[in-house]
Structure formats: structure tokens, C-alpha cells
Amino acid sequence: MATNPASSSKSFWSALLLAGLLAGSIDLIFAIVYYGKTGATAQGIMQSIAGGLLGRDAARQGGVETAALGVTLHYLIAFIWAAIYFAASRRLPILVSQTVLCGLVFGAIIYFFMNGVVLPLSALHAKPWPIRLNWWVIAVHIFGVGLPIALVAKSRLRAG
User: Fold this and answer.
1) Is residue 10, in this structure, part of any structural domain at all?
2) Do 16 and 86 contact (CB within 8 A), yes or no?
3) Which of 90, 92, 105 is nearest to 138 (CA)?
4) I want to staple 35 with a disulfide (CB 3.0 to 4.6 A). Which of 8, 40, 47, 96 is the partner?
């Protein structure tokens, strides 16, 4: 029985949407709870994400609009990471056959790439080295970002 290309494409996009929403939501909820304990507000956390594009001061002064931009950027980044894993899994079967291990490693890669490359190149100009090793944040990227993306990719490839 032949597969319907439109159905396969719809399955791919819905899986990508699910992976990005799941990973982005886990990470954002964690950030709000974790940094909220230090006095940060949800709006301030979202503005700090927008600060990567606008700069710290401009993001803080933008109010709800820059917080909304921060949320949008956060989920866009999560979708991009999911798309990278999905695309790579088509060429590297190990990403599907060893889903848990590869998802955990992918989460660590995301953490170190974001902190070692993306943030230093952003308008925040974070120091590239030494990378701050925050074990709670690393664990969330490993278990709450990388692993869900890999598990959704595997389920999509199995179904598609």
C-alpha cells in the first residue's frame, strides 16, 4: 500500500510542531520556576530571551511586546533544534535506533552550542568561555529538550 505524500508531509509537520512545542514548553516552564526562585519574573525571563536579538536594555524597556517577542524566539529556536534532529535522523539511522542515548547527547549539544556559540554572538554578548556549568539547566536540556525531540522524531519515523 503506497503512502500518501500529503499525509506523510502533514505527519512530519505535526510531529515537528509537537517536538518544538514540547521541548520549548518544558524549557520555558523550567526557566520561569527555576529563575523565579531568585526573584526573576516570567516577563523578565521572556524579555531576556528577546535580549538576544534586541540587547538587554532595549528588551527590558519593551514591556509586554518584548516579552512576547522572547516567547516567539524561544519557540522558534526549539522548532529549529527539532528540525535539525528530524533532518539528521533521515541520514543517520542511529538517531532513531538509539533514540534515548542520542536524545540525551543532543540535549547536551544544544546546551553547549547555545551557551558557547549562540549567546556570545547574540546582542547579549555573553562570554563564550568558560561556559557556565549549571547542572540543573544542563539536565533540563538533556532530559526536557533533547530527549523529547528524539522520542517524537522516532515516533514520526515509525509512523511515517
Assistant:
1) no
2) yes
3) 105
4) 40
